[in-house]
Every structure is written in C-alpha cells, then in structure tokens.
Amino acid sequence: HTVNHFKSGLGLILLMSVLPLTSLQAESVNRASADITASELEQRIVIEVDNNNSKAIALLTELVNINSGTMNFKGVKAVGELLMTEFNQLEFNSRWEEGSAFNRAGHLVAEHRGNGSGPKFLLIGHLDTVFEADSPFQKFALLDNQIARGPGIGDMKGGNVIILEALRALKAVGALKAMDITVVMTGDEELSGRPLALSKKALIDAAKYADIALGFENGDGNPATANVSRRGSIGWKLTVTGKPAHSSQIFREDIGAGAIYEAARILTQFYAELRQEDLLTFNPGNILGGTKVTFDDQTKTGTAFGKDNIIAETALVTGDIRAISEVQLNRVKTKMQAIVAASYPHTSGVIEFSEGYPAMAPTVGNKRLLEIYSGVSQDLGFGEVTAVNPLRAGAADVSFTADYVDMAIDALGLGSNKGHTAEETGDLATLPTQTKRAAILLLRLQNSH
Predict the structure, then answer these.
(1) What distances in angstroms separate CA 111 from CA 14, 123, 233, one per listed residue?
(2) What is the DSSP code (8-state) at residue 410?
(3) How are beta strands 120-126 and 180-186 bridged, if at all?
(4) What is the dihedral of CA 435, 441, 447, 449, to 10 degrees?
(5) Taking a C-beta distance cutoff of 8 angstroms, is the pair 161, 79 a contact?
(6) Prediction pTM value
(7) Peptide bond into 223 cis (omega under 30)
(8) Counting beta carbons within 10 angstroms of the beta carbon of residue 381, is it exposed (0 to 12), middle (13 to 18) or buried (19 or more)?
(9) Cα 294–297–299 angle (5° rounding)?
(10) Would you say the C-alpha torsion 317, 322, 328, 329 has a positive or negative sign?
(11) How far is Cα 196 from Cα 285, in angstroms, rounded to an integer?
C-alpha cells in the first residue's frame, strides 16, 4: 500500500470528516427536514434497480432451485458458475478457486480493478446452504406477492443477488468503471472446510488487499439492522478419566469420585465462574460417560457403556465458545484450563480447543461505516439502520476479514425469517430496497475518497 492509499490514517480521517450526508448540496431548510433530495446519479440508480427487479427475482428463483448444500459439491459449483456468468457480463474477471485441498467445492472470486481513485472494496457472499441434496426442502415457492419460501433464499442467495444487482445498477449509470471491487463468494460458509488456513485463504487474501468489507448475509433477517460486530466461534472437547472400581467404594480416599462426577464439577464451575462475562456464551452440546466411551468428531455421535455398580472411568463433553474478541477468548480459555486442572482426587481432565471463526470486534471504523449506511437508508426514505446485538448474531465469513480492513459491516442481505429451517422465507420487497442501499453506499464511499 502506498502512502496516499485509503488504508492510511489520513484517508480514514478524511472519510469521517468530509463524507456528505447526501450527494447534493441541499439547502439548510431541507437538511432540517426528513425529505433530503438525492443526487441525479443516485436517482438514476434507484430507477435502474426498479427497472431490473423482475429479472433479479427470476435470477434469485433460479439460484434457489439449484441445491447447493455444502457437501453437494456439484450443486455449489453450479451456483458459482451461474453467478460467474453474470459477473463476466459486468466486465469482472471471475474465476473458480478449487476446494479439493480443504474438502469442499471451492469459491467464486470476481475482480474489477478501477482507476485507483477510491477505496478498495470487498463484497462477501456464500454459495452454499444447510440443505443438502437429500433434504425434502428444495424449491422456491411464492407464498404471496411479497413473501417467498425456499432453501437458502435469505441465507444467503438473496444477498448474492443484491451484490450483483447493486453492481449492475452502478455499471448502468457509469459509476462502476472507476471502482476497485473484489467479490468473494465462499462455498463452505455453513460447514467450513479444514484446515481453515486453506479454506479461508481466498477471503483473507482479498481482505488484505481491501480497505472496506461489506458482508451480504441476512443477519437477524431485519433490514433495519446490520452487524458492526460478530462473535467468534471455536469448539472445545473435554476428556475426563477416573479410577474404576465397585460403586460401593466411591469417594474412598484411594479411589475418588470417578469421571462423571469430575465432568459435572468442571461444567458447574464453568457456569459459575464464566457466565458473568459480557457477550460470552459457552455451550456443552454433547456429553457421554461410563466405563467405555466412543465419539465421532465428524458426525458428533457416540456411544457410552457403563453399569450402575461401577464407578465411571471416562467422560467426554464437546461444545463451543462464542466470544466478542480474541482477548476475551484467550482469557476464557485460560480460565477453563485452570478449572479443569483443579481436579477431584484420582481424576484428571484435558480440554482441547479447535480452530474456528475469529471475532469481529465493534471498532470505531465499523460503527462509522454503519452511520454512513444508515444515512443512505434514511435519504432513500427507508429509515434508520441500527447495530445488531452480537448475542443475536452467529459467526460469519466477514469475521475473517475484520483484522485486515479499516471498516466492515455485515447483514446487508435480504429481509428473511426462519433461516436454517424448512420454513425459511425471504421478503421480496426488500430485494430492491437493499440493492439501492448497497449501490448508493458504494457510490458515496467512492466519491468521498
């Protein structure tokens, strides 16, 4: 990055100080009112989005009707190829990043290099859904003039269409030409490939190049909100061993309490000592105990054998941790390890932590970006956009970019409801409104540089 690049502190200060509320020099009396006139270029964007909305719905329907469950590699790639065709028509250079190295279908990457006059944007989507090829939930269906049901309509094929249609509108009015934009649509957001260093490389590389990241997930499904922060998510596995003996001898000084009591002690102390941590959750999702335990990490299934008159020799617990920052996560991991180490007599435990999604902290830059986005929304007459409580948002791909960009927000996607269920619906009325917001946000950020 050069000295005068947008990543410099000066560039960020300029953005925060000179960005106009509207693209038009409005009279002060108009600024005091709720009716702020948009610029002619922004009006043309609005018209373009409206004129193309029926085609956008048709594309969304086609995408939803292609099964792209994460492990349906052929389907994920088919969705990617359809979108690559659309990006190529917008004069992006698009490619497919093969995912065999991390046991997934791969990712779509589309690049448009501008004239260097503005910030470098990263737009984030994902191609996969939670509904695999054997799911009974497979097709798009209109429930009324506004609401449609379909697998992945909100999470997040609607968001992918919003990205594409915002860029299409910008191109139609001649504004796209100057913009430097990278689009990454991953094929494994719902079930990440491993190792993450490979499965998220395309996303992280794009973030290192970019200045501003915009995620088009559906967030909490409400277009009146967006994410300036997301909690990270990692897994943990607790393995406890005790001394087996006849149950009549439990608690004897030379035998102890057994593995199940020790696992119960550890979980109780987790609850007592960690639950006061702000924005932290830690959930035990599986527990097995007895004389013999088996567990499959891939399928999250297992077996336990034991008898009521035998002290348990083994216990196993798996779960996750969701934290708002790496600082909080490291503090919690240290505390959990200390609790595990303070074992009952003749028991021992080991806790292991797996790799996962990093946290997206609520930075000043992220909050400023949300203010700008909310200003766009209000100028368009769509109302204020406020930040989602991180407790209401799961992990997402945008989190992998947070440490590399100056500003990031997420949840710019389709209004939706009941995601990850066979009742997932999308509000088609939000398709054009979200597209207008995104296109004009990009335009204002470009012009403010």
Answers:
(1) 26, 10, 29
(2) B
(3) parallel
(4) -140
(5) no
(6) 0.84
(7) no
(8) exposed
(9) 95
(10) positive
(11) 22
d(CA 110, CA 394): 26
What's the rounded Cα separation, in Å, for the pair 293 and 295?
Answer: 7
Q: What is the DSSP letter of 388?
A: P
Q: Which two tokens stand for residue 114?
A: 């501008």
Q: Which residue has the tokens 């779509």?
A: 108
The region that residue 258 occupies, defined by phi over 0 for left and psi between -120 and 50 for alpha, beta otherwise, is left
**Tokens at residue 294, please?**
């088996």
Query: In angstroms, rounded to a whole number, what is the distance separating the alpha carbons of residues 305 and 312?
Result: 9
Query: Tokens for 365?
Result: 């830059």
CB of 199 closer than 8 Å to CB of 107: no
Specify whether the CB–CB gap between 95 and 106 falls below 8 A: no
End-to-end Cα distance, the chain: 16
Identify any residues that bridge with 181 across adjacent strands, giving them in sequence order: 112, 121
Q: Taking the chain (449 residues) in consecutive chunks of 10 residues, what is each chunk's mean pLDDT? A: 37 38 37 47 97 98 98 98 98 98 98 95 98 97 97 98 98 97 97 95 98 96 96 96 98 97 98 96 97 92 97 98 94 98 98 94 96 97 96 87 97 96 98 98 93
Q: Let me know: does 219 contact 414? Beta carbons within 8 Å.
A: no
Q: Return the C-alpha torsion angle 26, 28, 31, 35, nearest 10.
A: -70
**Contact in structure between 210 and 401 (CB atoms under 8 Å):** yes
The residue assigned the tokens 């087996």 is 244
- pLDDT, residue 79, reads 98
Q: Are 195 and 170 in contact (CB under 8 A)?
A: no
What are 45's two structure tokens?
């964007």
Kindly write down the DSSP assignment for every residue of 99-162, as one continuous string: -GGGTS-EEEEEEE---SSSPEEEEEEE--BS--TT-S----EESSSSEEE-TTIIIIIHHHHH
By C-alpha distance, which of 386, 441, 435 is closest to 51? 435
CA–CA separation, 163 vs 17, rounded Å? Answer: 27
Bridge partners of 214?
123, 409
Closest CA relative to residue 224, chosen from 353, 116, 374, 41: 374
Q: What is the DSSP letter of 33?
A: S
CA nearest neighbour of 359 among 269, 234, 237: 234
At 186 the three-state DSSP class reads strand
